[in-house]
Amino acid sequence: MKREIISRPAVVEPITDCSISDVKVWLQTQAIQHNLRWLLAHADDGVIWGELRDGQLVTSDSVVPEVSPPLRAETLQQARLFAIHAELLLWRDGDNRWRARLIRDAAEGEDYAFTDAIDEPQILWGTDPQPLANGFTLMSDGAQGLRHAIPLAVRGKFDESSRPLRLWVRHYLQDDESGFTRIVASRLFDVKLEEVK
Q1: What is the tally of structural domains in the chain?
Q2: What InterPro entries does this protein's entry cite (predicted)?
Q3: Are 193 and 154 in contact (CB under 8 A)?
């Protein structure tokens, strides 16, 4: 696959209100405020997917708790809320305090931190989809035994050479002091089912 450098001016904003008593409520509020659709969270006890639907953050633990843990501040390592135009990243710093930042597309005439970018599809594991309630699908990977519940409807069975799920990542580029172009920041912007060839 050929990577093409594209012009995508972006702004980086710190999120200053990180006083979190209920992490799911905080994430839901941020998703609504910044118009973010998807959630991908990593916790000590597993992966949590979610989607903002009608103002509610619906998470994978609500449909398959035996595979997906609930969103809990005690076990959450990091969470990403994202959509085509922006991503909010929540993480813990070295002092175990919450930190968050937003990378979003720059508005016309707005000062920006990054200009050039490359978009990259990351293959998500899962060859054997099992429909779940509420529009989720449990994706299993045969030989690995890996499972995660994604908030998309996936049908069919796929072999290991044609995993259909893609997590799209935008990498922002800058030249360093030596003149080398490097990836300096990345954000998620979409998750979708690709056509299997």
Answers
A1: 1
A2: CRISPR-assoc_Csx19
A3: yes
Q: What is the pLDDT of residues 136-185, one digit of tens each?
A: 999 988 666 789 999 999 988 777 777 889 999 999 999 999 999 999 99
Q: State how far the Cα of 112 lies from the Cα of 185, in Å rounded to an integer.
A: 13
Query: Which of 192, 187, 168 has its CA nearest to residue 87?
Result: 187
Name residues whose C-beta falls within 8 Å of residue 142's C-beta, 6 or more positions apart in sequence: 127, 128, 160
Q: Dihedrals φ, ψ of 193, to 5°?
A: -90, 120
Distance separating alpha carbons of residues 138 and 42, to the nearest angstrom: 17
Rounded-to-integer distance, Cα 71 and Cα 65, Å: 11
pTM of the model: 0.93
